[in-house]
């Protein structure tokens, strides 16, 4: 029997920026091509940035950042142009799933592929039980979890790489949010913000895969969707996104203290950014790509910037 629980939602604790030691932003290597709605992941000391919105259709390019070289370079392209898809690493492979594909137009897909970085080859994997886009694909407890997104249902899909099989789990009402962000900390999966019915949410959920249970944490101080998130030194960093009615692109930087269950602010972004991706390497957060505008305008406002955030004292 699958189960969940939803705890009462505490009032948001929003402390002044001075309550958190300020970090700093610096410029990183630029992507070879501007892209919004991309996915990025750190794997074995390198960052892979894949797909994203193109002017006419989703992109298939994959770039890899090796810090010893200090520049992005091309690696094997995705099997299909994809944007707003999931990217996660587990068992020595990088998995790409769902999203909007060049061949399918505006319809989400269920397809999945995996990449062997050593061989530089993509392989077809079992498709998800149903299509998803603007969702979160994360690795935890030796499995992949496809959560939220544009599906019209609250189902979570779970993939076991060893068995090569998917399982469908029920989730609480409201989990199917578009453009949420997700991180994994101490085996728990955090789902942050996102949009439903054309409005961004402040909701923060946490999922425990060990007992298949959900709960809600302190809300975001302000609603957002299309933001990026990363975890560093026990705190979750949330970058930009789009505001309540999805029309305003944000440049703020929120930080969630997991132990204290509270939100704070940190050094804002160099410029407004939405539909970017974030990855952590060598104790720094790399904010990659994205755009100054959302929705229809994303491909026309895409950037090639990589901004690097370092905490004070790092």
From TrEMBL:
Gene3D superfamilies named in the record: Kelch-type beta propeller
InterPro entries: Beta-prop_ATRN-MKLN-like, Gal_Oxase/kelch_b-propeller, Kelch-typ_b-propeller, Kelch_1
Sequence ranges assigned to domain Attractin/MKLN-like beta-propeller in this UniProt record: 47-293
Signal sequence segment: 1-21
Pfam families: Beta-prop_ATRN-LZTR1
Transmembrane parts of this sequence: none
Database matches in SMART domains: Kelch
Keywords: Kelch repeat, Repeat, Signal
Protein's UniProt name: Kelch repeat-containing protein
């Amino acid at each position: 029997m699958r189960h969940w629980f939803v705890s009462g939602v505490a009032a948001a604790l929003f402390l002044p920026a001075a309550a958190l030691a300020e970090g700093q932003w610096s410029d990183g290597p630029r992507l070879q091509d501007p892209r919004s709605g991309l996915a990025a992941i750190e794997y074995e000391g390198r960052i892979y940035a894949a797909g994203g919105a193109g002017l006419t259709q989703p992109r298939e390019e994959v770039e890899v950042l090796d810090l010893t070289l200090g520049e992005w370079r091309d690696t094997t392209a995705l099997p299909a142009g994809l944007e707003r898809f999931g990217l996660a690493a587990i068992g020595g492979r990088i998995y790409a799933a769902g999203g909007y594909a060049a061949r399918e137009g505006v319809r989400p897909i269920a397809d999945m592929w995996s990449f062997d970085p050593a061989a530089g080859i993509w392989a077809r994997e079992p498709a998800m039980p149903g299509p998803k886009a603007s969702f979160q694909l994360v690795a935890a407890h030796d499995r992949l979890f496809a959560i939220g997104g544009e599906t019209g249902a609250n189902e979570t899909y779970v993939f076991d790489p060893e068995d090569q099989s998917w399982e469908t789990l029920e989730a609480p009402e409201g989990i199917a949010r578009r453009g949420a962000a997700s991180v994994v900390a101490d085996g728990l999966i955090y789902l942050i913000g996102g949009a439903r019915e054309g409005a961004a949410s402040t909701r923060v959920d946490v999922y425990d895969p060990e007992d298949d249970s959900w709960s809600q944490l302190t809300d975001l101080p302000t609603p957002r969707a299309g933001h990026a998130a990363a975890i560093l030194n026990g705190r979750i960093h949330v970058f930009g996104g789009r505001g309540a009615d999805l029309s305003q692109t944000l440049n703020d930087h929120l930080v969630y203290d997991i132990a204290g269950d509270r939100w704070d602010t940190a050094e804002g972004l160099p410029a407004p950014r939405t539909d970017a991706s974030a990855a952590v390497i060598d104790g720094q957060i790399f904010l990659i790509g994205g755009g100054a505008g959302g929705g229809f305008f994303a491909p026309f406002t895409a950037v090639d910037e990589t901004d690097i955030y370092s905490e004070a004292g790092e």
